[in-house]
Design goal:
The complex is a heterodimer. By secondary structure, chain A is mainly alpha-helical. Chain A is built from eleven helices and two strands. In chain B, β8 (144-149) and β9 (155-159) form a beta hairpin. The chains are: A mainly alpha, B alpha/beta. The structure holds zinc ion (ZN).
């Protein structure tokens, strides 16, 4: 990684913008899926905890959208709410629904899936943020320092759930194993930097995706060994790569829902 | 905060002592260490604020309260409030007065030290007992945790320790 700092000059801007959209869209969808759990978590303390995590993560997304606004990409709120699925760069994992049904009617959400998705995603986010603390683009490096501090508590939270449920009853273990398989199917593009990857890494914005992925595997290896399990395989090539605008229909319905209120009056002050 | 202050800058800082956290009315944004810079050019006041947590919904409210308070100073023509991320806000920025203010509100001030395994300890803000348990590391706001005192049998909140070493 280069030690040199870069500005958002025209020759650097595309790569900076691409990476910022990946980070922003990831945290935005992640916190939206988290917020759908409100009132449905296994107990009241968990409801407080996971909505606090969703709120923090929404704050992280807002910071990235703010940096995009400062680069002239448009209003941060509009970037978050009004872009269609084929303009989004989030990974497949965060757009998946929480389970069958809808929180407005009869939600059959899967807590095991939530724990595994949130834990695996948060470990990946932590690894990226550590790398971004040395980002050659200073405004992003500064945000990374701030996000990193808050992430500490998120990681602790999801790791506790993950280890405890996998050390619990047979049924819990089985359901967690099922959730792990499901999450891993969508894990192929989590570390991908998409078609702009070479440029992003070349400018010293973040380290190479394979280096980051290997760090994730090394860290998870220790956790899996501590509960006598072997680490699952990660698909080498993703079925869909969200970084290149490839998405499932789940993203369309998520955007329709999350932007419903915003679309009513885009000029309203909240 | 280290700066040479002119008299209007001093007045602004005095006024900011009266701008409280919207959710904890016993501590000011100065006590919390959120004010990073105050500079005055003519009648224009520039204030740089460090947000405690990025997703904190009180930020816009704090911004408005700062503007209102500073605009009440006669010599001030314009107030600009900006949130900055560098340096990051950390809980060791809370002053001694701020720690007392938190306690007066029934919130344990953030511990100054964490153990090497990341665990931390606070005393009950009501009876001072060390016999407390962590109920929920996430509390009613992003910066607070919920604990329980086994001595006086009161639930209480504590400010989370926030450090760049995390
Ligand atoms: Zn007590």
């Amino acid at each position: 990684m280069t030690e040199q700092k870069i500005t958002a000059a025209p020759e650097n801007k595309d790569a900076i913008v691409s990476l910022l959209f990946q980070l922003a869209d990831d945290d935005f969808l992640y916190s939206f899926r988290g917020s759908e759990w409100l009132g449905l978590a296994p107990h009241i303390e968990e409801d407080v905890a996971s909505s606090s995590i969703s709120q923090d993560s929404m704050g992280h997304a807002a910071m990235y959208y703010q940096l995009l606004e400062e680069l002239g990409l448009g209003n941060a709120d509009a970037l978050a709410h009004l872009r269609p699925a084929n303009k989004r760069k989030n990974c497949t994992l965060v757009e998946r629904p929480n389970g069958e049904g809808c929180y407005m009617e009869v939600p059959k959400y899967d807590w095991a899936y939530a724990v595994v998705r949130n834990y695996f995603y948060t470990v990946a986010k932590k690894i990226k943020i550590e790398s971004l603390k040395n980002c050659s683009y200073d405004p992003l490096a500064q945000v990374a320092v701030k996000v990193n501090i808050e992430l500490y508590y998120h990681l602790l939270h999801w790791k506790t759930w993950f280890v405890q449920l996998l050390s619990s009853t047979e049924e819990a273990k089985q359901r967690m194993q099922g959730a792990i398989d499901q999450v891993m199917k969508d894990f192929g593009d989590v570390f991908s930097l998409g078609t702009d990857g070479e440029n992003i890494v070349g400018l010293g914005l973040i380290e190479d995706e394979n280096v980051l992925l290997q760090r994730w595997i090394d860290q998870m290896q220790t956790v899996f060994e501590s509960i006598n399990l072997s680490i699952p395989d990660i698909p080498s090539a993703p079925a869909l790569n969200g970084r290149n605008f490839e998405h499932t229909e789940d993203l369309d319905s998520a955007i329709a829902t999350l932007s419903e209120v915003y679309r009513l009056d885009t000029a309203a002050a909240w | 905060m280290q700066m040479v202050l002119n008299s209007l800058e001093k007045t602004v800082l005095e006024v900011l002592e009266e701008v409280h956290d919207p959710e904890i009315n016993t501590v000011s944004i100065i006590d919390l260490g959120m004010v990073e810079e105050v500079s005055v050019h003519g009648g224009v006041v520039d204030i740089k604020i460090l947000p405690t947590f990025l997703g904190c919904p009180a930020l816009e409210l704090i911004k408005e309260n700062i503007k209102k308070a500073v605009q009440s100073i006669e010599e001030v023509q314009e107030v600009k409030v900006e949130f900055i991320n560098h340096p990051p806000w950390t809980s060791d920025r809370i002053s001694e007065k701020g720690r007392k203010g938190l306690k007066a509100f029934g919130i344990a001030p953030p511990p100054r030290l964490m153990d090497s395994d990341g665990s931390w300890h606070v005393d009950c803000p009501f009876c001072g007992s060390t016999y407390v348990t962590m109920d929920n590391i996430f509390g009613p706001t992003a910066c607070r945790s919920i604990l329980y005192c086994k001595n006086c049998k009161n639930p209480f909140e504590a400010m989370k320790p926030i450090s760049t070493l995390m």
